[in-house]
Amino acid sequence: MDYVTLNNGVKMPQLGYGVYQTPPEETERCVLAAIKNGYRSIDTAQAYGNEEGVGQAIVKCSLPREELFITTKIWISNAGYEKAKASIEESLKKLKTDYVDLLLIHQPFGDYYGTYRAMEEAYKAGKARAIGVSNFYPDRYIDIAHFAEVVPAVNQVETHVFQQQKVAREYLAKYHTQIMSWGPFAEGKNDFFNTPALKEIGAKYGKSVAQVALRFLLQNGVVVIPKSTHEERMQENFNVFDFVLTDEEMKQIETLDTGKSLFFSHYSPETVEWFMSIV
To answer: Residue 257 in contact with residue 46, Cβ under 8 Å?
Structure first.
């Protein structure tokens, strides 16, 4: 396993396991399977509705808590200082742990300044080893990074071969914030798993399109959290440390970048209205 060192000195596995859209009743089984297959970083969120399943797995896996790296995120409905503060306690209770390793603001909406103040307090109290944001585009990221007392350690954003976040990565590096990918396989959009360049490179190494895509992100210094409910896929996604892409292959994959989201834009009024409608 490779690790990245966050801006406060905390070490984080560069490859983790995500439980987005994992049914609550399946989460414990899936997380235990992931841990059995070598994963030590688990990414969940209040909005996923499965923190309890992750908590059960933490208890049942028999590993010392310090060997695991647990991430959760504060949802929009818990935005603001008081609500965020209460929600952090609730998440810790559901996760059956005294602390999380990484605590993020899930979306840049609502009173996220108040949310971040509550997170800074949790950080200082040892309830979070690192704090950061998710889905903050460069403009909002620079804003909060400039005014916050604790510069975000991580920004988790849509990152895959078709959206490589080249501009965002430039600014994150400037402020020493680690980029973390959600949707490393673009959730199959754009016929992802049949991308000719990835298939061609994969054939050379005896690797799948998914493995090549993960390897590309890892070599670009991106933290990845692929998700699967199938153990054989968990194993496949974990088996990406035994080959290295050449400079030429990296450049070839770089040409796939469109610089645009395959999901939604936080700059779009329609997107913002949709988020407000689900709160």
So the answer is: no
230 is in an annotated binding site: no
Residue pair 137/230 in contact (Cβ under 8 Å)? The answer is: no
Catalytic residue among 3, 20, 39, 48: 48
Beta bridge partners of 118: none
Contacts of 215 (CB under 8 A, 6+ apart): 207, 240, 243, 244, 245
Residue found by looking up tokens 């997170």 in the block: 119
pLDDT band with cut points at 50, 70 and 90 for residue 237: very high
Residues with Cβ within 8 Å of 64's Cβ and at least 6 positions away in sequence, in order, are none
AA identity, residue 252: Q
R_g (Cα) of the chain, nearest Å: 18
- What is the CATH topology of the domain spanning 3-278? TIM Barrel (3.20.20)
Of 20, 94, 100, 104, the closest CA to residue 51 belongs to: 94
Task: Kindly list the distances between the CA atom of residue 107 and the CA atoms of 69, 121, 156, in Å, as whole numbers in the listed order.
Answer: 21, 19, 10
User: For this structure, is 48 an active site residue?
Assistant: yes
Burial of 246 (0-12, 13-18, 19+ CB in 10 A): exposed
**What is the average pLDDT value for the chain, to the nearest integer?**
97
Q: How many of the other CB atoms lie within 10 Å of CB of 200?
A: 13
> Tens digits of per-residue pLDDT, 188-220?
999 999 999 999 999 999 999 999 999 999 999
